[in-house]
Design brief:
The complex is a heterotrimer of chains A (384), B (86) and C (180).
Chain A lengths: L1 E5 H11 L4 E4 L6 H12 L6 E4 L3 H13 L4 E5 L1 H6 L1 H9 L5 E6 L13 H4 L7 E4 L3 H16 L7 E6 L7 E5 L3 H7 L26 H30 L7 E4 L6 E5 L3 H14 L4 E6 L1 E3 L3 H7 L5 E6 L9 H9 L7 E5 L9 H12 L5 E2 L8
Parallel strand pairs in A: 2-3, 2-4, 4-5, 5-7, 6-7, 10-11, 10-13, 13-14, 14-15
Antiparallel strand pairs in A: 1-8, 6-12, 9-11
Helix pairs in contact in A: 1-2, 1-7, 3-5, 7-9, 10-13, 11-12
Chain B lengths: L12 H4 L8 E5 L9 H5 L5 E3 L5 E3 L9 H5 L5 E5 L3
Antiparallel strand pairs in B: 1-4, 2-3
Chain C lengths: L1 E8 L4 H14 L3 E6 L9 E9 L14 E4 L4 H4 L11 E5 L13 E5 L1 H9 L5 H12 L4 H11 L2 H21 L1
Parallel strand pairs in C: 1-4, 4-5, 5-6
Antiparallel strand pairs in C: 1-3, 2-3
Helix pairs in contact in C: 1-4, 1-5, 3-4, 3-6, 4-6, 5-6
Classes of the chains: A alpha/beta (384), B alpha+beta (86), C alpha/beta (180).
Chain lengths: 384, 86, 180
C-alpha cells in the first residue's frame, strides 16, 4: 500500500519485515530515526528481535559480528564518523563472511564537522569486501534492504552489504512509498539459515589467522565471492521485480541513453535531479543521458562499458574525493572505459551537503562538451 | 585442501602443537621443598602444570616450553631449571 | 510542479505541517515530496520546511528556491529572514499575524494574513499554529481538500487532540474563505 512515509521510517519498516533477530546500533545524525523506530518496534513487541544498546559504533558492529557468527540475521545502521569507527570491524565481518546488512545514511566525514550529505563515508569503505547498494529514492532504499539480505545470505556469496541512501536528502524526506506486506516479504526472503555458526556443542572459530602461505588465497576467494554477487543481484533483483513489480536486476540503469552523445554517470539521490535536467536539455535539443550506478561493489565495469559504448563523452559526478587523486567513481568508470578511448571527466560536487541543482547539471554538461573537467565543481571563489 | 569459508577452524590446535620440543631448560620439581601452594600452576603460561594425588605439582613435559616462570616465582625455591640433554 | 516553503521557528511544528499537507495532498491524487531544511533543530531557531506537488513522480532533490506558496508561521521572522525570497509571480503568501502588514510582498504576489495564534490559543489552549495555517493553506490555494486535511489530522493525533486541531484548521479555513 502506498503511504507518505519518512525515508528513515520506511527503511525501519522494511528492516522489520526482514525479521532481523539481533540489532545493535549507536545513534548518529542522520541515521537516528531508523534506529529509534526499530528500538520502538522491539519495545512494543512489533518486532521479535534482541536490540543491543552499545557504547559506540565499534561495539555495535562487533556485537553484530558475534550475533551473526552465532547464527542470527543481524542488522545495524550508521553513517560518517560512526562508519569510520567501524572500519576495523567492517574488514573482519567481510573476512569472516558474515551476511550482515547495514544501512548507511550517507554523510560527510570530519574535520571540519559536517552532519550533511555526501558519499565519502561508504566510498571510503570500498575496499572492505562489503556489497554496496546506492538508492535514488526512498522506494529503492526500502526495497534494496530486502534484496540485500537475499544476496548477502546466498551460500555462494556470504558477504555483508551496505544499503546507502543520502542522509537528510532521502532519510528525512516524506514521499509516497509502497511498503510490502509481511506475507509478501516472507515469500521472497526465507527464514535465515546460517551457512555455519558458533555452537558450544560443536565448537569452531571464525577468522583464524592465516600465515603468508594462506592469506593471499583468502583475499582472492573473498574477491571472487564479491564478484559472483553480480549474478546473484541480477537474479534476485529480477525475482523481486516479478513478485512486486519493481525490477532491480540491473547493476546500472540508463536514462535516455540510447542516442545520447553525452552521458552523465552518478549514484544516489542526485540521479533524480539529473533526470529532470536531462529532460529539459533534451527539450532544448541536447542529446544527454544518465547512467545511474546502483551497485558500486561489486563494481559493474563490463556493464558500464556496454551501456556507454556509443557515447562520445562521459561526465562522472562524485560526492566524494580520494584526496590527492580524484573522485572514486570517476577513476573506476575511466578504468571501465579504458579500452574504448571515450573521454571521461570527473566532477567533485555536493560535498558536505552543498545543494546540487538542475542548472549545475547543465553547466557540467557544457563543461564536458568543451573537454573541461577533473575538477571540483561549484567552488565559491570568494572564499578561496 | 580447500580453504574454509570465513577462515573457520576447529578447536584443539594448541593440544596438537606439542611445544615441549621447544625446551632448552627443563624445570625439575623438588617435592621435598614444595609447600603445595599452587603458584606454579597459576602462573604457567602453557597451563601444563597439574596436581598429583598427594597434592604435589608436576609439569607435563609434552607441552612445557621451559620458560622458567614457575622456577622464578616458586616461594620455596623448589623448582630448578636444568639444561636438557637432547 | 508547485512548491511550498514554510518558515517557522523550531518547535512550532513546521515539519509536521509539511508532512501533513503532503499526506492530505496525496489523498487528493497528486504526487508529493516533503522535507525539512536539514540540520537546524533547535527550539526557537528559524527553520524551514518544504512541500512539492506534481501530477507525476517527483524526482528533483534540490532545495526549493522559487516557491509558489509561502507560509510564515511567525511574523517576527520577517525582520530576520528574507521570507519572501524567490516567490513566483502569481504566488500566495500566508502570514500568521494579528497586525496590519508593515511590509510589502513582491509584485504580483498575493498576501493573506491570518491571526492563527488566537485561533490556536482558543481551540488548543496552546500557541501551536501549524494546524490552523494548514486550514488557511487549504482555503487559499486549493492544493488540499479540507476533508483530506481532516483525515490526515485524525490519522496523526489521538482523538481528543485531533478534534481540537480540526477545529483550529476549520476556523482558519473559514476565515480565509470569507476574506477571498
Amino acid at each position: 500500500m502506498m503511504e507518505i512515509t519518512e525515508g528513515s521510517h520506511a527503511v525501519a519498516e522494511a528492516v522489520r519485515l526482514c525479521r532481523p533477530q539481533v540489532i545493535a546500533a549507536y545513534p548518529i545524525t542522520p541515521q537516528t530515526h531508523i534506529v529509534e523506530a526499530l528500538a520502538d518496534m522491539v519495545a512494543n513487541c512489533k518486532l521479535d528481535a534482541d536490540y543491543i544498546t552499545v557504547d559506540s559504533e565499534f561495539s555495535a558492529l562487533s556485537a553484530c559480528l558475534g550475533a551473526s557468527a552465532a547464527g542470527s540475521r543481524t542488522y545495524s545502521a550508521t553513517t560518517s564518523q560512526g562508519l569510520a569507527l567501524m572500519f576495523e570491524v567492517c574488514f573482519n565481518v567481510a573476512g569472516m563472511r558474515l551476511p550482515i546488512v547495514m544501512s548507511i545514511t550517507n554523510r560527510a566525514l570530519g574535520a571540519p564537522l559536517s552532519i550533511w550529505n555526501d558519499q565519502q563515508d561508504s566510498i571510503s569503505l570500498r575496499d572492505s569486501g562489503w556489497i554496496q547498494f546506492y538508492a535514488e529514492d526512498n522506494q529503492e532504499a526500502t526495497d534494496l534492504h530486502i534484496i540485500a539480505y537475499r544476496v548477502a545470505e546466498d551460500f555462494s556469496i556470504l558477504l555483508p552489504a551496505f544499503v546507502c541512501f543520502d542522509g537528510f536528502i532521502l532519510s528525512h524526506t516524506y514521499e509516497p512509498i509502497d511498503i510490502l506486506s509481511q506475507e509478501d516479504v516472507d515469500k521472497f526472503l526465507p527464514k535465515f539459515t546460517p551457512y555455519q555458526r558458533l555452537d558450544a556443542a560443536d565448537p569452531i572459530s571464525f577468522g583464524m589467522y592465516a600465515t603468508p602461505d594462506y592469506y593471499l588465497e583468502f583475499r582472492y576467494e573473498t574477491d571472487c565471492a564479491l564478484k559472483r554477487a553480480k549474478g546473484v543481484i541480477q537474479k534476485v533483483g529480477k525475482e523481486f521485480g516479478t513478485m512486486f513489480g519493481r525490477d532491480y536486476s540491473a547493476l546500472v540503469e540508463g536514462y535516455r541513453l540510447d542516442d545520447a552523445e553525452t552521458a552523465i554517470v552518478a549514484m544516489g539521490s542526485i540521479c533524480g535531479t539529473v533526470k529532470d535536467a536531462i529532460d529539459e536539455m533534451r527539450d532544448a535539443g541536447k542529446k544527454v543521458g544518465l547512467l545511474k550506478i546502483r551497485v558500486f561493489r561489486p563494481f559493474p565495469d563490463d556493464e558500464i562499458a556496454q551501456a556507454l559504448s556509443k557515447v562520445q563523452r562521459v561526465a562522472v559526478l562524485d560526492k566524494d574525493i580520494s584526496l590527492g587523486s580524484k573522485g572514486a567513481v570517476a577513476l573506476e568508470v575511466r578504468d571501465a572505459l579504458y579500452k574504448t578511448g571515450i573521454p571521461v571527466k570527473g566532477y567533485i560536487l555536493g560535498l558536505g551537503g552543498r545543494d546540487v541543482r538542475k542548472k549545475d547539471i547543465k553547466e557540467i554538461v557544457s563543461l564536458v562538451e568543451k573537454g573541461i573537467g577533473d575538477q571540483f565543481f561549484g567552488l565559491r571563489k570568494e572564499l578561496l | 585442501m580447500a580453504l574454509a569459508i570465513g577462515c573457520r577452524a576447529k578447536p584443539g590446535k594448541s593440544r596438537d602443537n606439542k611445544t615441549g620440543s621447544w625446551r632448552v631448560f627443563k624445570p625439575i620439581f623438588n617435592h621435598e621443598k614444595c609447600s603445595q601452594c599452587g603458584l606454579c600452576q597459576t602462573i604457567c603460561p602453557e597451563g601444563c602444570i597439574h596436581e598429583e594425588e598427594e597434592g604435589f605439582l608436576n609439569p607435563d613435559y609434552t607441552y612445557c616450553k621451559g620458560c622458567g616462570l614457575c622456577s622464578e616465582e616458586c616461594p620455596s625455591e623448589a623448582i630448578e631449571m636444568k639444561q636438557e640433554e637432547k | 510542479m508547485r512548491e511550498l516553503r514554510i518558515h517557522g521557528r523550531g518547535g512550532q511544528g513546521s515539519v509536521t505541517a509539511a508532512e501533513l499537507i503532503a499526506i492530505a495532498a496525496f489523498e487528493g491524487g497528486v504526487y508529493v515530496q516533503a522535507f525539512p531544511a536539514f540540520g537546524v533543530e533547535r527550539r526557537g531557531a528559524p527553520v524551514q520546511a518544504f512541500v512539492r506537488f506534481d501530477d507525476k513522480k517527483i524526482r528533483k532533490r534540490s532545495q526549493v528556491y522559487e516557491p509558489d506558496y509561502i507560509i510564515v508561521q511567525d511574523s517576527s521572522l520577517i525582520k530576520d529572514v528574507n521570507v519572501f525570497q524567490g516567490v513566483k509571480k502569481g504566488g500566495i503568501v500566508i502570514v500568521n499575524t494579528e497586525k496590519k502588514p508593515d511590509y510589502k510582498v513582491p509584485e504580483g504576489v498575493k498576501l493573506i494574513t491570518i491571526d492563527a495564534t488566537s485561533i490556536a490559543l482558543k481551540a488548543l489552549g496552546l500557541p501551536i499554529t501549524n494546524t490552523s495555517l494548514m486550514g488557511a493553506f487549504a482555503a487559499a490555494t486549493g492544493e488540499i481538500k479540507f476533508s483530506a486535511l481532516e483525515n490526515a489530522l485524525n490519522h496523526r493525533f489521538p482523538k481528543d487532540l485531533a478534534v481540537k486541531n480540526i477545529e483550529a484548521a476549520r476556523q482558519a479555513f473559514d476565515t480565509v474563505k470569507r476574506s477571498i
